[in-house]
Amino acid sequence: MNNKSPGNAKQFGTFGGVFTPTLLTILGVIMYLRMGWVVGNAGLLGAWLIIIISFIITLCTALSMSAITTNIRIGAGGAYAIISQALGLEVGGSLGIPRFISQGLAVTMYIFGFREGWLSIFPYHDPFLVDVIVFLFLFGIAYISANLAIKTQYIIMVIIVLSLISIIMAAYNGSMQIPTQDALSWGSFKGSSENGFSGSNFWVVFAVFFPAATGIMAGANMSGELKDPKKSIPTGTLWAIGVSFIVYMALAYWLAHTATEDELLNNYNVIIDKAFFGPLIIAGVLGATFSSALASIVGSSRILFAMGEHRVLPYSNFLAGKSANGQPRNAMLVTGLLIFLTMLLRNINAVAPLVTLFFLVTYAMINIVVIIEQRLGLISYRPLFKINRWIPWFGLISSVLAMFIINPTISWITILIVFVVYFYLSRQNLETPFEDVRSGLFVSFAEWAAKHTWGMKSMQQRAWKPNLMVPVRDIVVAKGNFQFLRNIAKPKGSIKLLGIEPFNENSKLINELDTLSESFRQKGVFSSWTIINTDEFAKGVNFGNQALKGAFFRPNIIFLNLKDQNDFEVEVRAVIKESIRLEIGILLFSPHPTARLGQRNVINVWVSDRQGNWDLGWDIGNLDLSTLIAYKLKKNWQAQIRIITVIKNENDKDEAHRFLNALITAARLPQTLTKVYVGDFKNIVKDAPAADINIFGMEESLSYNFIKEMTEQTNSSCLFVKDSGHESILA
What we know:
Layout: H1 14-26, H2 29-33, H3 35-69, H4 79-87, H5 89-121, H6 127-144, H7 146-172, H8 180-183, H9 202-209, H10 217-220, H11 229-258, H12 261-266, H13 270-274, H14 278-309, H15 316-319, H16 329-343, H17 352-376, H18 390-406, H19 408-425, H20 438-454, E1 467-472, H21 475-480, H22 482-489, E2 494-501, H23 509-522, E3 526-533, H24 537-547, E4 557-561, H25 568-581, E5 585-590, E6 602-607, H26 624-637, E7 640-647, H27 653-666, E8 673-678, H28 681-687, E9 693-697, H29 704-714, E10 717-722
Parallel strand pairs: 1-2, 1-4, 2-3, 4-5, 6-7, 6-9, 7-8, 9-10
Antiparallel strand pairs: 5-10
Helix pairs in contact: 1-7, 1-11, 1-14, 3-9, 3-11, 3-17, 3-18, 4-5, 4-17, 5-6, 5-14, 5-16, 5-17, 5-19, 6-7, 6-14, 6-16, 7-14, 14-16, 17-18, 17-19, 18-19, 24-25
């Protein structure tokens, strides 16, 4: 098979591509063999109500589908394509895969229905042989081309129209003998011969009839081979629903006036017996089951082909293969194999409800797509077919209710299958070839959250998370800090890489920052990057921070690495000063040349002497960010925190101990060590317990010599921290 463009396939119009397969799928075997039983149980008024409810559910979904198909460039796959383009391949595939399988089961059920009709004429024929011959006919027609399938359905359409004419002629010739006052009644819901007429109810009868109304996707499944899907899908689907609704309502009226309650309940072939020419009804039954099977086998192969094109499934290249005339024959072969295997089950009544319920799940999801699009209010949502806002909501709620009315247990199983498939696909890193609505959904949610929290921006300490701005001049230094930065930000923080370099048309830093940012994302930390072209490091960083001052999702910490600086006084001091003015937290990292970050087992946090002020209030000085960063490192390193303070006055020792313990309790820092020293700070630092990193508070006047001295005396990497004033370890 060679991969030709879709343009090589036959392009169908509204009548042949949508109206005919949709109408023939709706006017199926239930109309011929179960409509009498529905009227016998529910009465004419009950039957009309069941038909109206069923078609309202279907109509709302059809209207939603019409709106969304006139807003996108729908490709092959029908509902799968609609949902994928809106909510992504993962969601589309989670419905597309089980829907493809259920379509295969539907073909098998239609084949079995055809066999039952055939055996009523030729009872001595071998049932399995009948199934195989019908399958081969179906597969042969569909495999040759969709064009032949459509032409075959024209013939079946004529047969079904003739069968309906036979019913009209029966009415014309006086079959409607039951008086109107008796016919216009509410049913007694006596049940069926299968349950010994022990009783039924409205919703049980509804569940039997409703699958008749679930054929609206038959035309949409041909979306990839329609000349104008934006026009054909809405027009063809809605006309098919309208015509079939009239047929069902009129047929219920004729049955209620033509047959007694006992005849309707006991004889599933009552239409055959009461029609003007019974053999035409039998031909209609055979034609309805055959056409439904044909539409399903053609439609299901298109769903499989579309998933192959989007690389949703294994062996997607094979599934996306097409013949010289544009037919998805590889997908057709797999579909045929699935159908033949399900035929070997011989009795699929146990899984038959899945077919209807997967239709309903699909209906619900299409309505959800429209609800999301309407709620987002994005300018990209400009459907040519506009619908009221209540329509998709009614379609969604009624679809879900119908599922649980038909079979609550199988409904939960159906939903579970969808979630299991989604869980699998979400881990396959699918590459979506189109932009879906999820980006708009997430952006709109973020905007909504920003607007609702903007007024509380001075009280966001409970929602604090480390959002780092990391200036990068030397990509090698930045890569060396990769794990350290990741351990500070993970799991909910973020890292914005700010490249600083003079303007250069052939900049290598652009690609290097993009690669580094992607590495952070792959390791579970959201990251983005940008470059400021300037010769002066401090100005570049400060301009970046100033520009982001008005942003809602702005960095709240500036991370500076001494190893990346050429001049502490010119570059670092200016950034520290401006960051303090802008109320941005500061992390100044001084890596030890040999010890680096050691074994990452212990973190020392140094608390300055509070000189008699040992009361623990909400304002604990320049200590919040230090403790928060220590806690983040503790979690990600599986390390232990030790809080140390050095006091000058021996009398403050007990107070200092109480303060540190109260801090640990209030900050919820379990298994944290404390140490209180009395004496000169610089002398004690030399003999302090070893740690892999020492965290100190800092002031604007922090000197370069003090930084180097602490790094040497602790024999460890050091982190110097300045609070922004917007974080709190006690929150």
